[in-house]
Records
---
Amino acid sequence: MDLKELYQEIILDHGKNPRNKKICNGFNKDAKGHNPLCGDKVHIYLKTDQNKKVEDISFEGEGCAISIASASILTEIIKGKEHTLAKKILEDFLKMLKDGSKFQLNSLEENEKISMMSLSGVKKFPMRVKCASLAWHTFIHALEEKKTKVNTEKA
Ligand code: ZN
């Protein structure tokens, strides 16, 4: 299996069987996001503890396979991470979506990097970049308790 096939497999798997697709118990932060161009909607729920760690994260939403897979991958990667690390992961992820650059972070597991890299194919399709980044932008809004709703067309 080559890398491209592996990436497709990962996206299909997360799109069909999304992880953490529910409202997590005892969430204390949340945010909503909308991508009107494609019709993707996502609602991110976070439970953060006093040590600035994301104890639990989940999502609800509907949309294309890319947006669901991306939200599912997000929850898997971010769960248990400290806020500062989570933000660095987000920066790296968004950079990768834009120009295909490699991850700078050394602190991630190989399988975590591969999950995120699986979405790197969207960089050729600007519309799809919005699908893939929606959940991640929404996650930061939740973490930073911004009151506005994420809208990919009003960035
Ligand atoms: Zn979409």
Note: The CA atoms of residues 53 and 149 lie 23 Å apart.
---
Amino acid sequence: MKCLKVSAIRFFCFLIMMVFISGCDNINIPEFDQHKAYSYLQEQCGFGSRVPNSEAHNRCKDYLYLKLTASADVCRKQDFIYYDQMRTDTLYLTNIIASFKPEDKHRILLCAHWDSRPWADEEADSSLHSQPVMGANDGASGVAVLMVIAEVFKNNPPPFGVDIVFFDGEDYGQSGKADEWLLGSKYFAKNIGGYLPHYVILIDMIGDSELNIYKENYSQTHANWVVSRIWKAAELENAEHFLPDIGKSIYDDHIPFLEIGIPAVDIIDIDYKWWHTIHDTPDKCSPESLGEVGRVVLRMIYDKELHQ
Ligand code: ZN
């Protein structure tokens, strides 16, 4: 009898301790719905390749604007024009900008590109180079994750101001011509005015079902403290596809921010077999990969330990 009593007390103490430990760790970090993210990836691809000036591009722009308007405190379109001298074509482009807690001076920026590449120029068969890329991974994946995060913010206001930006015209350029790429982020950074986010997180090509995310080299060199926090968040989330090694240097939408002195990190898996081919389709992506990245980004926002 006595013995039983002692073990019951011990068990009770153990329960209290477990509640305390789990409460310390995961408190107030909302769930990320990876299946919803995957459905948003599919819906974007359902419009077709979102190539600038195409019908699919126009329809997807309206869709994204409506979705973000439903979640954000303020949502706006930033229209701009790019004149392509080589092809003598005028491109009508739009960045979509959603703000949460717009009155808060302390802000961070989360971003992805929503356009698809017009040319599948990594295809082995050169007769396919003039075909557009679907961009399930290269475009739709990052946007899908941020669409779900926008919905999380609606129901669980973030502890500081956050802006989510979908950039247009990221994937337009020809190889070796830096001027033709990153059109949306360059335009945004050039017209940034007094807006000064604490840091920027870009997510790109994170839907690959065989995910491997290395520390992108420009991010590591110029925004190393943000990289450390993201990888700490990944550790806390058991995100095993965030690898500790430093990877390639990638010319992506974080560069225009680094150029004006704003710390910016690119979370990207560039080693994707279907990159810039006609096979970059939803079946190459998985809800699990979207979920892993979504959970890490939410941890960055809601875990106070990572804010210092
Ligand atoms: Zn691309």
Note: The mean pLDDT is 93.
---
Amino acid sequence: MTMTPSRPAATPPTGAVPAGDGGRPVVPASGRLHPLGLAEVQITDGFWARRQDVNRTATLGHIEHWLEREGWLPNFDLATQGGLPEGRRGREFSDSEVYKLLEAMSWELGRRPDPGLEERFHAIVRRVAAAQEPDGYVSTMFGRPGQGDRYSDLEWGHELYCQGHLMQAAVARARTGHPDDLLVQVARASADHVCEVFGPAGNQGVCGHAEIEVGLAELGRALDEPRYLRQAALFVERRGHGTLADIEWGRSYYQDDVPVRDAEVFRGHAVRANYLAAGALDVGVDSRDDALVEAVARQWARTTAARTYVTGGQGSHHQDEAFGEDFVLPPDRAYSETCAAVGSVMVAWRLLLARGDARYADAVERALFNVVATSPADDGRAFYYANTLHQRVPGEPAATDVASARAESSLRAPWFHVSCCPPNVARTFASLAAYVATVDHGGLQLHQYATSEIRVTLPSGAPVAVDVETAYPADGRVRVRIVEAPSGRWALTLRVPAWSPTATLTVDDGTARTVPAGSVAVPDLRTGSVVVLDLDTSPRFLRPDDRIDAVRGCVAVQRGPEVLCVESVDLPGGRDVADLRVDPSVPPREVDGRVVVRGVVVDHGRTAPWPYAPGGATPGSRTAQVDGEAAIDVPLVAYHDWASRGPSTMRVWMPTT
Ligand code: FUB
Ligand code: ZN
């Protein structure tokens, strides 16, 4: 058996995806890799299976409860009964959270039937449908006497944003076996209305929050309606020409400063920037516009290199929820909104499908483990909205019975006045299996590792079945058993994450061979063959580019795909993490199942009246020396678990001795 270390097999652009697009969130018309659906990939155990279970059994109902309670679902009833605008509650974009819940429910129902959930889903859809205007327009916020006119506030109104989420919800329903469902009819009417109003000769505006682009593009794919893709292309091309008002943060806030294909980097509001990039990629790949795809890929590369936290989080401005300039990545001011990470997964996944490069799958993994998984509490009923990398003051436990005004990071809260993140997590978890693997004419590619069953048909028509078994990320061993090999030539390609300094591959109990980061293709495996990929998850220090001034002189620790952090509850006497100095000469190691670093806890003593001192002096009463202080082992926790044990101070980047 030979192995070929390589990037994924170099297949030419392939044109149409295999027949049927069941359960796939994204189905591009062209690209290197074909996505798989929820019917083809099932995560059956482990880290992500647990989160999917909690999502199904707790989070969906939790979100539904809060949408009722906060009035965001009843807004649709008021619309039907003539009770708007007087009784309306929630922000201008609250309709979108209902649509994201419907999307999450649709994926979940596609994963496994549940009559109770199905009934709740239909009940919500009926309420939304009843509120739709005869011409397809749907919004609880605009268009009635006493409300703003339709599309009179493109900067802030979010009407197209909300309808984009409606379309994504309908895509989930259509792709899980219900193309004629009421939700799909509602979204189709909305999309027709949008094309009518914003078509080539219509309103030349764009929405202040990108989202309609991905919604239209994917609905067009799902319903085989090319007009929707053309409308998405119009919105992509119209952005960047300054049609939206200049605001205090500049037009870059909503990416209306530079045309998409001319931009150099993601900028402005981080969720908006990612959603726009995702939509531009959809338009680019479907219209075979390589220049547009390349423009977004270039922007993604610089954004990854200079504007992304070690967790994969994006956005370092709290005031406008936006990217900072290159290397402005302060850990204690990280905004790193959960939705921005969901958007970054959308972008990286589309780039992976278009180009097949494993670094995009690395980015999906980083954001999933270290931001998306960080947001929800273990019980799936409280969330982080912003994801700081450094908590200086222990957060207050959030009230369980009122929505939190605090989007900025403290302890996880059950709901927020702006609650975009919880349903975004829910729809991502429900559709997670779709991001695990792809196929192409050369075979099957595994991108994310989870115990799973994959049953697919290759573009050639040959069936392939593999079972994946792993304790990932706790353990780096991934065992793939070929349950059914296709006839003819094929290859199983495995991603070798960039975080693994070494990796070995063993085929059918043969000799383990070292494989480099990127991807490794194993050709012509037979039914019954077993491939074992061993990734090195031993913990290691990370050091930042010294232009990230805010963390210069600090180290972080990563173990496998998980970024770790230190919490004050793990320091002697609950001391503040500000007092920890890590000894960088002693590598992090595992002791009794926990990763520890060697360090000292210094005594800062009295705080000086002026926190700066000349020359080599140290302000305050603390001496600069730490040699005399006793070195201890300090346990770390996975960042996604932080604050699970109650309030603490926390930091990812730790100063060194
Ligand atoms: O504007 C809608 C959503 O609310 C954004 O995506 C989030 O950043 C939050 O501001
Ligand atoms: Zn959000």
Note: The chain has 13 helices and 24 strands.
---
Amino acid sequence: MPDIIQLLPDSIANQIAAGEVVQRPASVVKELLENALDAKSASIRLIIKDAGKTSIQVIDDGKGMSETDERKAFERHATSKIRSADDLFAIRTMGFRGEALASIAAIAHVELVTRQAADELGTKLIIEGSSVNRQEKVQTMPGTSITVKNLFYNVPARRKFLKSDAVELKHITDEFHRIALANPEIHFSFHHNGNELYHLPKGNLKQRIVGILGKNYAEKLIPVQENTDIVAISGFIGKPDAAKKSQADQYIFVNQRFIKSHYVSHAVRTAFEEVIAPDLFPFYFLFLEIDPSRIDINVHPTKTEIKFEEERLVYNYVKVSVKHSLGQYSLSPMLDFTQDPAFGKFVSTAPHGVGNTHSRQESEFGYTSKGTSPSRDGWQEVYQSLVSGNSPTPMPFSRELFSLENEASSLSPLEETGVNPSYLTQPFQLHHTFVLHQVKSGLLVIDQQAAHERVLYEQYLDTLQTGEYASQKELFPRTIQLDPAKAALFHTMLDQLHGVGFEIEDFGHNAFVLHGSPAGIDESTSIETIIDQLIDQYSYNLELHLGVQENIARSLALSASMKRGRKLEKEEMRHLTDRLFACSLPYKSPSGRKCFYILELDELIRRFTQ
Ligand code: ADP
Ligand code: MG
């Protein structure tokens, strides 16, 4: 039998590769824009005709190519971005397969003009169907201009399958958005058939989002910013009330590359769960910075899908960061009732009744809350520290904040009648689970368990950091017997536990003697149960790599917090509320539960008028 295997000519091999790299005009746009980014350009122009079917041109002011490199760039596996296999794992540049230009040149007419800043003249290269037609010296600006004409001219089957201009243009616009969003510090423009569709001067991310999606987005963004040991997360999420009916405008970038990740999207979705209806979708622009060696970009041929080494951690971090931002945002409109413009409106339509007498009187007496509230300044400071996320000395979130109606009621005739309006703001416990307070914007509902967990967590963290703890001595030291696995773990926790106020002695043989415990722990739960839960929680948290102090504070807060079902005296309720709002982040408990919710008056009124 004669040998029948032959090596394919390069032109055919390139056409086959092109099938993978170039599906449609948008794929060419993506490759060319990425090359321009890799060339460290400050300004990039995209100019297309007929949705890219007739021509696609990208002009950059990047580093350009030498005469030889210009020719080499079109050879298969020609790249300046990888020198060894190790580079594959540390790669930060965009394209890295050295295939794009070779593939594009196999199925289109390509003209490339390039000049390096140090050279006086540039060169122009014309390629058709993988073969160089001409190369000549030309006058040109530093940088590169590449024009791709008549895409698929020699592959009629592919050309026939291109969709309408509108559809192909949409695909191109999507690619352009992704790249422009990821690089706000670069100036971009985009022309289609002579019309400028986008003109995006260099700026910050917010300006870029607004430049692409429209001015009304400026009002709809909540910043996200979180650094953890393995990933830094930044960007913006859309406000819950701006959620959309479709999944449009959900962007995730990893190391400045747009990627698709069901995993990360799911994490964001979950973080939004409580604040948007199930049939609505949040929009977001999230940027993850992660060591390239911890991800695998090569799982998908066009590199939009990646795999994280520590998927679960990334998932958790994304979820927590988004929740955190949502939490900080929700605090502002809910508690900032002194500036609620809707307030005057709804109180005047409020039905008559004891509960809203003051509000109604206030508006009838022309009371405007602006500037008259004694706690307003304090509130703003607290709010500032909440949004900046660091509150070195937690500001007391004084009860005045919630009894503004009392202050205002000095204007009210009710007080003149001798009725003390303070009863209106007495807390009330609902089903031994929630603490209710009347506040100006409506009804404040506090989840006692989550709130107490938050209070204890901040207390313990503070104690661990300052070393100043308060301990309650046990009258009769108690012995706690643990199973060997728990005892071993508990042993490693003793130092830190001492730091929060536990006095525990390791007695050997898995037994420990308790001489004292930290102040503040819930007295209706036995200390044995608390310690048992503490160890379980601590061991569970180990996977989150929180750091020992953080873990101890979180685990102990969870196990020592008062549970739902515990009856509270009025004084205890007030104390809890005060302490909750003295926290630097009162919105949620460290285990992620919402601590409070405000049922707004207008929402209630709506329910009665519908
Ligand atoms: P890759 O980007 O994977 O290296 P390409 O086929 O896209 O492969 O490009 C091949 C090479 O051509 C690049 O490595 C780069 O050196 C050079 N190149 C392509 N486009 C540009 C550009 N706009 N400016 C400077 N160099 C470029
Ligand atoms: Mg490339």
Note: The chain has a mean pLDDT of 79.
